[in-house]
Write a structure and sequence with these properties.
The protein has helices at residues 2-10, 29-45, 73-88, 117-127, 136-145, 173-191, 207-221, 249-258, 279-289, 304-313, 315-321, 349-357, 368-376; strands at 16-18, 21-24, 53-56, 113-114, 147-149, 163-168, 197-200, 227-228, 244-248, 269-277, 297-302, 325-328, 343-346, 362-365. The chain is an alpha/beta fold. The strands form four sheets. A five-stranded parallel β-sheet has the order 12-11-10-13-14, sandwiched between helices. Strand 13 (343-346), helix 12 (349-357) and strand 14 form a beta-alpha-beta unit. Helix 4 (117-127) packs across helix 7 (207-221) and helix 6 (173-191) packs across helix 8 (249-258). The longest helix has 19 residues, at 173-191. It is globular, with a radius of gyration of 20 Å. The protein starts with a helix and ends with a helix. The structure holds FE3-S4 cluster. The site of FE3-S4 cluster has 14 residues, from strand 10 and helix 12.
């Protein structure tokens, strides 16, 4: 509660409000180290218990299958200690950035306290729930108290759009929506005002396209909320703001090109699932891989509940028979693989950003199907 009061004081919150659920980030031992683990153990030993539904972001390793990803045994053991500390506090060890796909699904208008920038953007914008971008400690504090200070995106006045974005480009799949996130994100960054964008001109957007857009917009623009006319629920409450920018096809193409730093022959690592794959994406992937053999390291990152459905459908078996590897509970960003590969091929703009900045990989930013073809080449 002291953490939350301090936060509320900084942001001039007038009161605390109850939250319905929490998503906690900062789970990878790669980020936490011993100091972070000690903090978690102190909280657990002090009797800390989650008072509301609390789920966990990806860890640094597939906790049930660390060898498959070539992660050091010592790291896997320490990662296990982190997850155990959270579990002792009653936090569900879901280890996924898409909690809304399997049970932590807030409803419209509900106050929540989520960390994980892509999930925050999805919860605020696509679901219409209300959360700020929490950090690991403030999300844990919200889980243990069931409260958060009422400021930022919990308040009506801060959810109003202030920048209209007219999209005059046709968008197809996760890569184009990721590219749109880059273009709008850079506009937000460049404005220096952190406007809430109101996007018009997008005719349809699948769940998968929106999760890709959310991850990209949060990464390149630090955005936690957008409205999309005809697609997201709160857009109906507002008219487009007067200040308008236009996004044309060339902007999308330029954004895609900006993440293609690697030549095709340099790619030695392929990954799909940033944010974690939905079951529909795994079904599509199965169709593309069935009866074929991949030639490169190919990580399929998803949550354990979605992997469970894939197992029951026979999808996992077909994917593994093709030589791809499930990286359940983790992803190519939070896993300790810095410097292990030369170039990553992916359909995720967010994964490209961190591949370059954190892991020192070159990148190829391709459509979902092209990524699979890259693995087969
Ligand atoms: Fe999720 Fe990892 Fe991407 S946490 S959003 S798969 S960077």
């Amino acid at each position: 509660m002291e953490i939350l009061v301090a936060l509320g004081t900084i942001y001039e919150a007038e009161r605390m409000i109850p939250v319905a659920s929490v998503q906690i980030a900062g789970v990878s031992y790669d980020n936490l180290g011993e100091a972070g683990l000690e903090f978690l153990n102190d909280m657990a030993e002090g009797g800390g218990k989650a008072r509301v539904l609390a789920t966990l972001n990806p860890a640094g390793v597939d906790v049930e299958n660390p060898e498959a990803l070539g992660i050091d045994e010592g790291f896997a053991r320490n990662q296990g200690r982190v997850i155990e500390a959270f579990a002792r506090m009653g936090v569900l060890p879901t280890c996924s950035c898409t909690p809304y796909l399997f049970g932590n699904l807030p409803h419209y208008g509900e106050h929540i306290a989520w960390a994980e920038s892509s999930a925050v953007c999805y919860a605020n914008s696509v679901l219409g729930a209300r959360t700020n971008r929490e950090g690991g400690p403030s999300a844990l504090a919200a889980a243990l108290t069931g409260r958060t200070p009422a400021y930022g995106y919990h308040l009506d006045e801060n959810r109003r759009p202030s920048l209209a974005v007219q999209v005059e480009a046709s968008l197809c799949g996760t890569v184009d929506f990721g590219a749109l996130g880059i273009v709008i994100g850079k506009e937000i960054e460049g404005s220096g005002k952190k406007p809430v964008p109101y996007v018009t001109g997008v005719r349809e957007a699948s769940l998968e396209a929106l999760k890709s857009f959310c991850a990209s917009l949060a990464t390149y623009g630090g955005a936690a909320l957008f409205h999309m006319q005809g697609i997201t629920p709160e857009a109906a409450l507002f008219a487009p703001p007067a200040e308008t920018v236009t996004v044309i096809q060339a902007d999308i193409e330029e954004a895609v090109a900006s993440l293609n730093s690697a030549r095709p022959e340099e790619v030695d690592f392929v990954s799909l699932g940033c944010p974690h794959l939905s079951i529909a994406e795994i079904a599509r992937l199965t169709g593309l891989l069935r009866g074929r053999q991949v030639k490169k390291t190919f990580w399929i990152t998803t949550s354990r509940p979605v992997k469970g459905i894939a197992d029951r459908m026979g999808y996992s078996q077909a994917i593994e028979a093709a030589g791809a590897v499930f990286a359940t509970d983790t992803c190519c960003v939070v896993s300790p693989i810095r410097g292990r590969y030369q170039a990553l091929a992916t359909d995720s703009a967010k994964a490209c950003y961190y591949a370059a900045s954190k892991n020192r990989f070159k990148t190829r930013f391709l459509s979902f199907d092209e990524v699979v073809q890259e693995a087969l080449r």
